[in-house]
Amino acid sequence: MALFSMKLDNLKALFVNELRDLYDAENQITKALPKLIDKSQNPQLKAGLKEHLEVTHGQIRRLDRIFQMLNEKATGETCKGMKGLIAEGDEMVSHSGDASVIDAGIISAAQRVEHYEMAGYGTVRTYAELLGHREMANLLQQTLDEEKQADETLSQIAKTINVEAKAA
Ligand SMILES: [Fe+2]
Q: Does any domain span residue 75?
């Protein structure tokens, strides 16, 4: 939701608006991931989340480059969707219980975040292509590929953890 009123009278304006939303979402993720890393017990899950934190820093740098190319500021939007997803993840790790079950819950929360981001990046990548911003489209595609990869990795890890959770 915009902190200031923004006129959405062309696709470029919507593109910038959605990029700012993603920029805020990524920054929220960098603040939320350390807690999930800390609370996760499975070493593979911990390592996967740590790696994604590093990847996320790179994604923020990519967005910074895009804002520079557009000569637009990166801030001004709050991603309420990501706030909600992170709040659900926080709630998940606030419970006491079996480590595998909680790890399975962390994966569930993290995959929701990845899918939300994949939807956002697919959209802005397509807008960039339509607007003729080929380099920006490439940068956004790289991030989209990373989010897909993170989702795949989580699915792989879940194969073990969900079975452990079932045995709890
Ligand atoms: Fe991301």
A: yes
